[in-house]
Write a structure and sequence with these properties.
Layout: H1 19-26, H2 39-42, H3 51-58, H4 73-97, H5 101-131, H6 139-153, H7 158-169, H8 180-188, H9 196-208, H10 210-225, H11 230-250, H12 253-277, H13 292-299, E1 302-304, H14 316-340, H15 349-354, H16 364-373, E2 385-387, H17 389-401, H18 415-424
Parallel strand pairs: 1-2
Protein backbone atom coordinates (compact mmCIF):
# COMPACT_ATOMS: atom_id res chain seq x y z
CA UNK A 1 0.00 0.00 0.00
CA UNK A 2 2.72 2.49 0.89
CA UNK A 3 4.36 4.23 -2.04
CA UNK A 4 8.07 4.75 -2.26
CA UNK A 5 8.03 8.55 -2.07
CA UNK A 6 6.23 10.93 0.24
CA UNK A 7 5.17 14.43 -0.62
CA UNK A 8 3.09 17.16 0.96
CA UNK A 9 2.59 20.74 -0.09
CA UNK A 10 1.92 23.42 2.48
CA UNK A 11 1.70 26.62 0.49
CA UNK A 12 0.52 27.98 -2.82
CA UNK A 13 2.87 27.23 -5.65
CA UNK A 14 4.06 29.97 -8.00
CA UNK A 15 3.13 29.69 -11.67
CA UNK A 16 5.23 28.37 -14.56
CA UNK A 17 8.25 30.56 -13.80
CA UNK A 18 9.40 28.35 -10.94
CA UNK A 19 8.20 25.04 -12.35
CA UNK A 20 11.70 23.65 -12.96
CA UNK A 21 12.72 24.48 -9.40
CA UNK A 22 9.61 22.75 -8.13
CA UNK A 23 10.28 19.67 -10.24
CA UNK A 24 13.74 19.45 -8.73
CA UNK A 25 12.19 19.75 -5.30
CA UNK A 26 9.99 16.74 -6.00
CA UNK A 27 13.04 14.52 -6.46
CA UNK A 28 13.99 14.71 -2.80
CA UNK A 29 11.39 12.78 -0.78
CA UNK A 30 10.99 13.68 2.86
CA UNK A 31 8.56 12.82 5.57
CA UNK A 32 5.37 14.34 4.14
CA UNK A 33 6.80 17.87 4.51
CA UNK A 34 8.08 18.97 1.08
CA UNK A 35 6.83 22.46 0.38
CA UNK A 36 5.36 23.16 -3.07
CA UNK A 37 5.59 19.51 -4.11
CA UNK A 38 4.85 20.15 -7.78
CA UNK A 39 3.96 16.50 -8.36
CA UNK A 40 1.02 17.36 -10.61
CA UNK A 41 3.04 19.95 -12.54
CA UNK A 42 5.73 17.36 -13.27
CA UNK A 43 3.09 15.42 -15.20
CA UNK A 44 2.84 18.28 -17.70
CA UNK A 45 5.73 16.48 -19.41
CA UNK A 46 3.04 14.19 -20.82
CA UNK A 47 0.94 15.20 -23.87
CA UNK A 48 -1.84 17.72 -23.39
CA UNK A 49 -4.57 15.31 -24.45
CA UNK A 50 -3.94 13.10 -21.39
CA UNK A 51 -4.00 16.00 -18.91
CA UNK A 52 -7.78 15.84 -18.24
CA UNK A 53 -7.43 12.12 -17.51
CA UNK A 54 -4.48 12.78 -15.19
CA UNK A 55 -6.51 15.45 -13.41
CA UNK A 56 -9.26 12.93 -12.76
CA UNK A 57 -6.91 10.11 -11.71
CA UNK A 58 -4.82 12.28 -9.41
CA UNK A 59 -7.70 14.45 -8.22
CA UNK A 60 -5.65 17.60 -8.82
CA UNK A 61 -5.34 19.96 -11.80
CA UNK A 62 -1.96 21.54 -12.59
CA UNK A 63 -1.28 25.11 -11.58
CA UNK A 64 -3.29 27.58 -13.65
CA UNK A 65 -5.61 24.98 -15.17
CA UNK A 66 -9.29 25.80 -15.40
CA UNK A 67 -12.19 23.51 -16.12
CA UNK A 68 -13.60 23.61 -19.63
CA UNK A 69 -16.71 21.75 -18.57
CA UNK A 70 -18.58 21.65 -15.29
CA UNK A 71 -20.46 18.39 -14.72
CA UNK A 72 -23.97 18.68 -13.34
CA UNK A 73 -25.22 17.24 -10.09
CA UNK A 74 -27.35 14.79 -12.05
CA UNK A 75 -24.31 13.62 -14.00
CA UNK A 76 -22.67 12.64 -10.72
CA UNK A 77 -25.80 10.78 -9.60
CA UNK A 78 -26.28 8.95 -12.90
CA UNK A 79 -22.60 8.06 -13.21
CA UNK A 80 -22.59 6.64 -9.67
CA UNK A 81 -25.68 4.54 -10.38
CA UNK A 82 -24.17 3.40 -13.69
CA UNK A 83 -21.01 2.30 -11.90
CA UNK A 84 -22.99 0.49 -9.20
CA UNK A 85 -25.28 -1.47 -11.51
CA UNK A 86 -22.89 -1.66 -14.45
CA UNK A 87 -20.18 -3.17 -12.29
CA UNK A 88 -22.63 -5.66 -10.81
CA UNK A 89 -23.86 -6.61 -14.28
CA UNK A 90 -20.29 -7.15 -15.50
CA UNK A 91 -19.63 -9.41 -12.51
CA UNK A 92 -22.78 -11.38 -13.26
CA UNK A 93 -21.74 -11.83 -16.89
CA UNK A 94 -18.30 -13.10 -15.87
CA UNK A 95 -19.77 -15.59 -13.40
CA UNK A 96 -22.58 -16.81 -15.64
CA UNK A 97 -20.36 -17.27 -18.71
CA UNK A 98 -17.87 -19.37 -16.74
CA UNK A 99 -14.89 -18.06 -18.70
CA UNK A 100 -11.35 -19.14 -17.93
CA UNK A 101 -9.85 -17.90 -14.67
CA UNK A 102 -7.03 -16.02 -16.40
CA UNK A 103 -9.66 -13.74 -17.95
CA UNK A 104 -12.32 -13.92 -15.26
CA UNK A 105 -10.18 -12.83 -12.30
CA UNK A 106 -8.97 -9.44 -13.63
CA UNK A 107 -12.38 -8.61 -15.09
CA UNK A 108 -14.10 -9.56 -11.85
CA UNK A 109 -11.66 -7.51 -9.76
CA UNK A 110 -12.27 -4.48 -11.99
CA UNK A 111 -16.04 -4.98 -11.90
CA UNK A 112 -15.99 -5.25 -8.11
CA UNK A 113 -13.97 -2.04 -7.80
CA UNK A 114 -16.40 -0.20 -10.08
CA UNK A 115 -19.41 -1.51 -8.14
CA UNK A 116 -17.93 -0.38 -4.83
CA UNK A 117 -16.92 2.94 -6.35
CA UNK A 118 -20.50 3.60 -7.45
CA UNK A 119 -21.95 2.63 -4.08
CA UNK A 120 -19.45 4.66 -2.13
CA UNK A 121 -19.92 7.70 -4.37
CA UNK A 122 -23.65 7.51 -3.75
CA UNK A 123 -22.90 7.90 -0.04
CA UNK A 124 -19.85 10.16 0.23
CA UNK A 125 -20.81 12.52 -2.58
CA UNK A 126 -24.52 12.33 -3.45
CA UNK A 127 -26.00 11.60 -0.01
CA UNK A 128 -23.39 13.86 1.55
CA UNK A 129 -24.49 16.85 -0.51
CA UNK A 130 -28.15 15.99 0.04
CA UNK A 131 -27.83 16.27 3.82
CA UNK A 132 -26.06 19.61 3.34
CA UNK A 133 -28.98 20.69 1.16
CA UNK A 134 -26.64 21.34 -1.76
CA UNK A 135 -27.39 18.54 -4.20
CA UNK A 136 -30.28 20.17 -6.07
CA UNK A 137 -30.94 23.18 -3.86
CA UNK A 138 -34.44 21.85 -3.18
CA UNK A 139 -34.56 20.39 0.32
CA UNK A 140 -37.52 18.12 -0.41
CA UNK A 141 -35.94 16.75 -3.57
CA UNK A 142 -32.60 16.31 -1.83
CA UNK A 143 -34.25 14.29 0.90
CA UNK A 144 -36.07 12.08 -1.61
CA UNK A 145 -32.86 11.44 -3.54
CA UNK A 146 -30.96 10.60 -0.38
CA UNK A 147 -33.65 8.24 0.93
CA UNK A 148 -33.75 6.35 -2.38
CA UNK A 149 -29.97 6.18 -2.62
CA UNK A 150 -29.45 5.11 0.98
CA UNK A 151 -32.08 2.40 0.66
CA UNK A 152 -30.37 1.07 -2.44
CA UNK A 153 -26.94 0.71 -0.83
CA UNK A 154 -28.12 -0.15 2.70
CA UNK A 155 -26.92 2.84 4.73
CA UNK A 156 -28.61 5.12 7.25
CA UNK A 157 -31.58 7.34 6.42
CA UNK A 158 -31.54 11.07 5.76
CA UNK A 159 -32.40 12.24 9.26
CA UNK A 160 -29.84 10.04 11.00
CA UNK A 161 -27.06 10.87 8.56
CA UNK A 162 -27.76 14.59 8.73
CA UNK A 163 -27.76 14.58 12.53
CA UNK A 164 -24.47 12.70 12.74
CA UNK A 165 -22.68 14.50 9.96
CA UNK A 166 -23.74 18.12 10.19
CA UNK A 167 -23.97 18.44 13.98
CA UNK A 168 -20.80 16.47 14.83
CA UNK A 169 -18.50 16.17 11.84
CA UNK A 170 -18.73 19.89 11.12
CA UNK A 171 -18.25 21.00 14.72
CA UNK A 172 -15.45 21.77 17.17
CA UNK A 173 -15.53 18.11 18.21
CA UNK A 174 -13.99 17.07 14.89
CA UNK A 175 -10.94 14.81 15.38
CA UNK A 176 -10.98 15.21 19.18
CA UNK A 177 -11.62 12.56 21.83
CA UNK A 178 -15.22 13.82 21.90
CA UNK A 179 -15.62 12.91 18.23
CA UNK A 180 -17.39 9.54 17.74
CA UNK A 181 -15.13 8.99 14.74
CA UNK A 182 -12.05 9.12 16.97
CA UNK A 183 -13.69 6.87 19.54
CA UNK A 184 -14.39 4.44 16.73
CA UNK A 185 -10.72 4.39 15.71
CA UNK A 186 -9.63 3.88 19.30
CA UNK A 187 -12.11 1.04 19.68
CA UNK A 188 -10.64 -0.62 16.59
CA UNK A 189 -7.19 -0.39 18.20
CA UNK A 190 -5.72 2.62 16.41
CA UNK A 191 -4.30 4.04 19.63
CA UNK A 192 -2.21 7.19 20.08
CA UNK A 193 1.36 6.41 21.07
CA UNK A 194 1.61 3.14 19.15
CA UNK A 195 4.47 2.79 16.70
CA UNK A 196 3.57 3.24 13.05
CA UNK A 197 4.38 -0.39 12.30
CA UNK A 198 1.88 -1.48 14.94
CA UNK A 199 -0.78 0.82 13.49
CA UNK A 200 -0.20 -0.62 10.04
CA UNK A 201 -0.52 -4.15 11.40
CA UNK A 202 -3.75 -3.14 13.11
CA UNK A 203 -5.08 -1.80 9.80
CA UNK A 204 -4.33 -4.99 7.88
CA UNK A 205 -5.85 -7.09 10.64
CA UNK A 206 -9.01 -4.98 10.66
CA UNK A 207 -9.35 -5.38 6.89
CA UNK A 208 -9.71 -9.16 7.31
CA UNK A 209 -11.29 -9.15 10.77
CA UNK A 210 -14.62 -11.04 10.86
CA UNK A 211 -15.64 -8.94 13.87
CA UNK A 212 -15.15 -5.69 11.96
CA UNK A 213 -17.25 -6.85 9.01
CA UNK A 214 -19.92 -8.33 11.28
CA UNK A 215 -20.32 -5.11 13.29
CA UNK A 216 -20.36 -3.02 10.12
CA UNK A 217 -23.06 -5.14 8.48
CA UNK A 218 -25.12 -5.26 11.67
CA UNK A 219 -24.99 -1.46 11.87
CA UNK A 220 -26.23 -1.14 8.28
CA UNK A 221 -29.03 -3.65 8.78
CA UNK A 222 -30.15 -1.96 11.99
CA UNK A 223 -30.12 1.46 10.33
CA UNK A 224 -32.44 0.20 7.59
CA UNK A 225 -34.76 -2.22 9.36
CA UNK A 226 -34.87 -1.23 13.05
CA UNK A 227 -33.88 2.34 13.92
CA UNK A 228 -35.05 4.08 10.73
CA UNK A 229 -38.41 5.89 10.53
CA UNK A 230 -41.35 3.67 9.59
CA UNK A 231 -41.56 4.90 5.99
CA UNK A 232 -37.86 4.21 5.53
CA UNK A 233 -38.15 0.72 7.02
CA UNK A 234 -40.96 0.07 4.55
CA UNK A 235 -38.77 1.24 1.65
CA UNK A 236 -35.97 -1.09 2.72
CA UNK A 237 -38.36 -4.00 3.15
CA UNK A 238 -39.83 -3.53 -0.33
CA UNK A 239 -36.43 -3.07 -2.02
CA UNK A 240 -34.70 -6.04 -0.45
CA UNK A 241 -37.75 -8.32 -0.63
CA UNK A 242 -38.01 -7.57 -4.34
CA UNK A 243 -34.33 -8.36 -4.83
CA UNK A 244 -34.40 -11.63 -2.95
CA UNK A 245 -37.67 -12.72 -4.56
CA UNK A 246 -36.32 -12.11 -8.05
CA UNK A 247 -33.06 -13.89 -7.30
CA UNK A 248 -34.93 -16.84 -5.82
CA UNK A 249 -37.30 -17.05 -8.77
CA UNK A 250 -34.42 -17.01 -11.27
CA UNK A 251 -32.25 -19.30 -9.18
CA UNK A 252 -29.27 -16.94 -9.34
CA UNK A 253 -28.06 -17.13 -5.75
CA UNK A 254 -24.40 -17.72 -6.61
CA UNK A 255 -24.34 -14.90 -9.16
CA UNK A 256 -26.14 -12.59 -6.73
CA UNK A 257 -23.71 -13.34 -3.92
CA UNK A 258 -20.65 -12.74 -6.10
CA UNK A 259 -21.87 -9.77 -8.14
CA UNK A 260 -23.88 -7.88 -5.50
CA UNK A 261 -23.57 -9.11 -1.92
CA UNK A 262 -19.79 -9.54 -1.71
CA UNK A 263 -18.79 -6.15 -3.19
CA UNK A 264 -21.50 -4.29 -1.26
CA UNK A 265 -20.51 -5.80 2.08
CA UNK A 266 -16.92 -7.01 2.50
CA UNK A 267 -15.35 -4.84 -0.20
CA UNK A 268 -17.52 -1.84 0.67
CA UNK A 269 -16.37 -2.09 4.30
CA UNK A 270 -12.70 -2.30 3.29
CA UNK A 271 -13.03 0.73 1.02
CA UNK A 272 -14.72 2.73 3.78
CA UNK A 273 -12.06 1.76 6.33
CA UNK A 274 -9.10 2.74 4.14
CA UNK A 275 -10.71 6.09 3.33
CA UNK A 276 -11.76 6.78 6.88
CA UNK A 277 -8.33 6.01 8.34
CA UNK A 278 -6.72 8.92 6.49
CA UNK A 279 -9.70 11.29 6.24
CA UNK A 280 -8.32 13.65 8.91
CA UNK A 281 -5.22 14.09 11.04
CA UNK A 282 -7.02 12.48 13.94
CA UNK A 283 -6.17 13.84 17.41
CA UNK A 284 -3.56 16.24 16.06
CA UNK A 285 -2.37 18.37 19.01
CA UNK A 286 -4.01 21.79 18.98
CA UNK A 287 -2.67 25.11 20.13
CA UNK A 288 -5.37 26.81 22.22
CA UNK A 289 -4.05 30.18 21.08
CA UNK A 290 -4.90 29.42 17.46
CA UNK A 291 -8.27 30.09 15.87
CA UNK A 292 -10.80 27.44 14.95
CA UNK A 293 -10.06 27.98 11.29
CA UNK A 294 -6.35 27.44 11.87
CA UNK A 295 -7.12 24.14 13.58
CA UNK A 296 -9.59 23.04 10.92
CA UNK A 297 -7.18 23.84 8.10
CA UNK A 298 -4.54 21.64 9.67
CA UNK A 299 -6.86 18.71 10.31
CA UNK A 300 -7.49 17.89 6.66
CA UNK A 301 -5.19 17.59 3.64
CA UNK A 302 -5.73 17.01 -0.04
CA UNK A 303 -5.17 13.33 -0.85
CA UNK A 304 -4.02 12.86 -4.42
CA UNK A 305 -3.29 9.66 -6.28
CA UNK A 306 -0.09 9.69 -8.29
CA UNK A 307 3.62 10.37 -8.24
CA UNK A 308 6.07 12.57 -10.17
CA UNK A 309 6.98 11.93 -13.77
CA UNK A 310 10.48 10.48 -14.23
CA UNK A 311 13.45 12.83 -14.43
CA UNK A 312 13.43 14.56 -17.80
CA UNK A 313 17.22 14.44 -17.90
CA UNK A 314 17.35 10.65 -18.17
CA UNK A 315 18.01 8.97 -21.52
CA UNK A 316 18.10 5.59 -23.18
CA UNK A 317 17.21 2.42 -21.30
CA UNK A 318 17.11 4.23 -17.95
CA UNK A 319 14.41 6.57 -19.26
CA UNK A 320 12.38 3.71 -20.75
CA UNK A 321 12.50 1.70 -17.52
CA UNK A 322 11.60 4.78 -15.46
CA UNK A 323 8.55 5.57 -17.59
CA UNK A 324 7.39 1.95 -17.66
CA UNK A 325 7.71 1.82 -13.87
CA UNK A 326 5.80 5.08 -13.51
CA UNK A 327 3.06 3.87 -15.84
CA UNK A 328 2.78 0.55 -14.01
CA UNK A 329 2.45 2.24 -10.63
CA UNK A 330 -0.14 4.69 -11.92
CA UNK A 331 -2.16 1.88 -13.52
CA UNK A 332 -1.95 -0.78 -10.83
CA UNK A 333 -1.51 1.27 -7.63
CA UNK A 334 -2.84 4.82 -7.88
CA UNK A 335 -5.75 4.25 -10.29
CA UNK A 336 -7.23 1.42 -8.19
CA UNK A 337 -6.86 3.59 -5.08
CA UNK A 338 -8.73 6.41 -6.84
CA UNK A 339 -11.54 4.13 -8.01
CA UNK A 340 -11.86 1.89 -4.97
CA UNK A 341 -11.04 4.19 -2.03
CA UNK A 342 -10.93 7.90 -2.94
CA UNK A 343 -13.73 8.21 -5.44
CA UNK A 344 -15.74 11.33 -6.21
CA UNK A 345 -14.62 14.48 -4.40
CA UNK A 346 -12.81 12.69 -1.55
CA UNK A 347 -9.37 13.85 -2.75
CA UNK A 348 -10.57 17.42 -2.16
CA UNK A 349 -12.22 16.78 1.21
CA UNK A 350 -10.16 19.60 2.72
CA UNK A 351 -11.90 22.06 0.39
CA UNK A 352 -15.30 20.82 1.56
CA UNK A 353 -14.42 21.48 5.21
CA UNK A 354 -13.31 24.99 4.35
CA UNK A 355 -16.39 25.65 2.22
CA UNK A 356 -19.16 23.22 3.28
CA UNK A 357 -21.89 25.44 1.83
CA UNK A 358 -20.24 25.82 -1.56
CA UNK A 359 -22.08 24.76 -4.71
CA UNK A 360 -18.78 24.01 -6.46
CA UNK A 361 -18.73 20.41 -5.19
CA UNK A 362 -19.68 19.24 -8.70
CA UNK A 363 -16.22 20.36 -9.86
CA UNK A 364 -14.33 20.11 -6.58
CA UNK A 365 -10.86 19.53 -8.02
CA UNK A 366 -10.88 22.81 -9.92
CA UNK A 367 -12.69 24.68 -7.13
CA UNK A 368 -9.96 23.68 -4.68
CA UNK A 369 -7.22 24.61 -7.13
CA UNK A 370 -8.70 28.05 -7.73
CA UNK A 371 -9.03 28.65 -3.99
CA UNK A 372 -5.44 27.50 -3.46
CA UNK A 373 -4.10 29.80 -6.18
CA UNK A 374 -6.10 32.71 -4.75
CA UNK A 375 -4.21 32.26 -1.48
CA UNK A 376 -7.01 30.58 0.50
CA UNK A 377 -8.76 33.88 1.33
CA UNK A 378 -10.11 34.03 4.86
CA UNK A 379 -7.96 31.14 6.08
CA UNK A 380 -4.79 31.50 8.18
CA UNK A 381 -3.31 28.28 6.81
CA UNK A 382 -2.74 27.34 3.16
CA UNK A 383 -3.86 24.03 1.73
CA UNK A 384 -1.71 20.97 2.32
CA UNK A 385 -1.49 17.79 0.29
CA UNK A 386 -0.18 14.26 0.37
CA UNK A 387 0.38 11.99 -2.63
CA UNK A 388 -0.51 8.31 -2.63
CA UNK A 389 -3.02 6.44 -0.50
CA UNK A 390 -0.27 4.67 1.42
CA UNK A 391 1.40 7.97 2.22
CA UNK A 392 -1.92 9.50 3.30
CA UNK A 393 -2.51 6.68 5.77
CA UNK A 394 1.13 6.69 6.87
CA UNK A 395 0.92 10.42 7.55
CA UNK A 396 -2.06 9.95 9.88
CA UNK A 397 -0.31 7.07 11.63
CA UNK A 398 2.72 9.30 12.05
CA UNK A 399 0.55 11.86 13.84
CA UNK A 400 -1.01 9.18 16.06
CA UNK A 401 2.34 7.60 16.92
CA UNK A 402 3.74 10.97 17.99
CA UNK A 403 1.00 11.49 20.59
CA UNK A 404 1.10 10.38 24.23
CA UNK A 405 -0.94 7.27 25.10
CA UNK A 406 -4.49 7.77 26.35
CA UNK A 407 -6.78 5.88 28.67
CA UNK A 408 -8.40 3.94 25.88
CA UNK A 409 -11.09 2.46 28.14
CA UNK A 410 -12.58 5.90 28.69
CA UNK A 411 -12.39 6.66 24.98
CA UNK A 412 -14.10 3.57 23.61
CA UNK A 413 -17.11 4.01 21.39
CA UNK A 414 -20.49 2.75 22.50
CA UNK A 415 -22.38 0.36 20.27
CA UNK A 416 -24.53 3.29 19.16
CA UNK A 417 -21.42 5.31 18.28
CA UNK A 418 -20.03 2.39 16.28
CA UNK A 419 -23.25 2.03 14.32
CA UNK A 420 -23.50 5.75 13.56
CA UNK A 421 -19.87 6.06 12.46
CA UNK A 422 -19.92 2.96 10.28
CA UNK A 423 -23.07 4.05 8.49
CA UNK A 424 -21.53 7.43 7.71
CA UNK A 425 -18.05 6.24 6.72
Amino acid sequence: MKTNQKYAATSVAPPQANLEERKNEVKSPTNHTVQNSGVRESLLALPSFVQPLLTWVTGKPPYGARSKHTPSNWFHLVSALAALFGGAFASWVVVSMQITAILAVPILLLAWMVTVSGARKLLIMISHQCVHGKFSGNKVLDRIVMELVSTTILVQDFQAYQADHVSIHHSKQLATLEDPDVKFLVTLGFLPGLQKAALWRRLWWTVVSPRFHRIFLQARLKANFISAPSYRRFMSLVWWTAQLSLVSWLGLWSEYAIAWVFPLTILYHISALLQFTCEHRWLQIRDPKQSGRWVLARLTAGRFMGEPAPDQGWHGAKKVVAWLTWFGRMLFLHLPARVFVLMGDLPQHDHHHRHPESLTWVNAAYARQEDLEAGSPGWPEPYSEVWGLGNAIDHVFEVLSSLPPIDNKSSLATNADLADVMNGM
